[in-house]
Design brief:
360 residues; Isopropylmalate Dehydrogenase; 2 domains; ten-stranded mixed sheet; 20% strand; globular; binds nicotinamide-adenine-dinucleotide
Amino acid sequence: MSKNILVLPGDGIGQEIVAEAVKLLACLRDDFGLDIDMDEALIGGTAYDATGTPLPDATLDLARESDAILLGAVGGTKWESLDISVRPERGLLGLRKELGLFANLRPAILYPQLADASTLKPEVVSGLDIMIVRELTGGIYFGQPRGVRELDSGEKEGFNTLVYRESEVDRIVRVAMDIAMKRGKRVCSVDKANVLECTEMWREVAVRVGNDFPDVELSHMYVDNAAMQLVRAPKQFDVMVTTNMFGDILSDCAAMLTGSIGMLPSASLDENGRGMYEPIHGSAPDIAGQGVANPLATILSVAMMLRYSLGQSEMADRIESAVMKTLDEGFRTPDIYSEGMNKVGTEEIGDAVVAALRAN
Ligand code: NAD
């Protein structure tokens, strides 16, 4: 049966990079027999401009009916002064929450062709392949109560709440364990159990879930140490699992080990494996409309979609090989350009990946 893919280009470079990923999906459909239908809808600032809300009901309805979602990025300077309730980012948070996309998978892989792009020494990062599993729909970003109140003294006090239920921890640790079983069979659970009761409980649940996976080696690390270890000796990690906020910070740190924000895909999954797939970067207003954005993170997000939501691992492998071939052939967008390479724009590198896919 044909699978429904909802395409949400969003704002800024989202429009440009998603166009390249759609070109690739169309090639898989037309030349390789991938049985898909694609719909497109509005999200973020472009949705706000057209409908007055960053997450229109029509988009949410299509999202609920889809098997997988491909997202570009949302946000931009144009919408920064809007009330927080209708800012583009709110549309994305709302979509994740509404669809129950609780598991955020962020691989940080160093492509050998781009080893020079990392700010760390090559011997520290070469061969790097970490999977960060971040809890995405709970924790301090959603906990109540939250706000800013005025004290009797007239001073303001801001407050947010870190809250997790055992079931929320259980399901995210299980996702990490399942992924580790298909990789290096090691999971590091990151918490701050020495200071925060909530994450003390997180650790207890992680241990309990770990008992169901005797083949996986489970370790624990405080978040401050994990941040240090990520830049000191990142190759010690296989899979890391952590809370929403810790994962937000650590995964950006891990991404930068690879030196190239334009190369890293992500997946956000619900309990049934339905997912939203997007590059980890934002809408890059500074380069939007110039045709120079790197679409490879979005194209690699399509590979994750094929693997995790559409059961097409072989096609996912093909995409990843096509990206490798494109890099081997020297094609580089400006963000990953180095001396002697072939500097190209968004469309040209997208075309090169499609050509590499056809040639393989
Ligand atoms: P950003 O990721 O958009 O950009 C950071 C830097 O990386 C910029 O210099 C940009 O030019 C560069 N960059 C990003 N993606 C690139 C690509 N594919 N190719 C080449 N260069 C690339 O982060 P920011 O500037 O902090 O945020 C811009 C907007 O994006 C903000 O409105 C922010 O809220 C939003 N944002 C959205 C998401 C999302 O949609 N998931 C994530 C992060 C930020």
